[in-house]
Design brief:
Blueprint: H1 7-15, H2 19-49, H3 53-85, E1 93-95, H4 101-117, E2 125-128, H5 141-152, E3 155-158, E4 163-167, H6 174-181
Parallel strand pairs: 1-2
Antiparallel strand pairs: 2-4, 3-4
Helix pairs in contact: 2-3, 4-5
Amino acid sequence: MARKMSNDELYKLLRQMSNDELYKLLRQDAFDLREKAKTLFREAQDAQRCRNHELCKKLKKQAHSKLTEAQQWQKVAAEIIFNITNAKNNKFVIDLHGLHTSEAVGYVSQRLVQLNESNDTAQPLLVITGRGIHSRLGPKLPTAIKDFCDENGYYYKEGKPGTILVYITTRFSKSLKSHFEEYEEPLELKWVF
């Protein structure tokens, strides 16, 4: 008979996995649920074509339920992945490896709000987006984070490949931003882990 693991034991086990293994394990249930929802939607379309409206309605309801469940699993997976990849980082470093674009933007937004509210604006937030070498369609996170900064008035600079420095001093004005751009010096990043 298998012994039930405590949350601490499970967390420790998950931290020992590679990012790829962790990602696949945590995202697989959500992926399976989305696939089941697609199948149910196709079956609902078939029922609609056969004029079986009652079955169509039932299948659509089941499909929507599976999609909702998949979204819940994605949220749980994102939280676990984020907590594990950032366990040793200080509040000025945020690693987005393993997160989907909307999740990553959400975590960056949340961290910037926390730093602003606590007046911890002395140093920039180092955002580790990665270079996108594991993404099928190439790097998406750097563009999403830069777009978020532009839309919300945060000044940023690209650091080493796969990193972005976001300056927290709340929302630079355009004139101040252009002043910063006059001084294009290479950045020396100090990794704080």
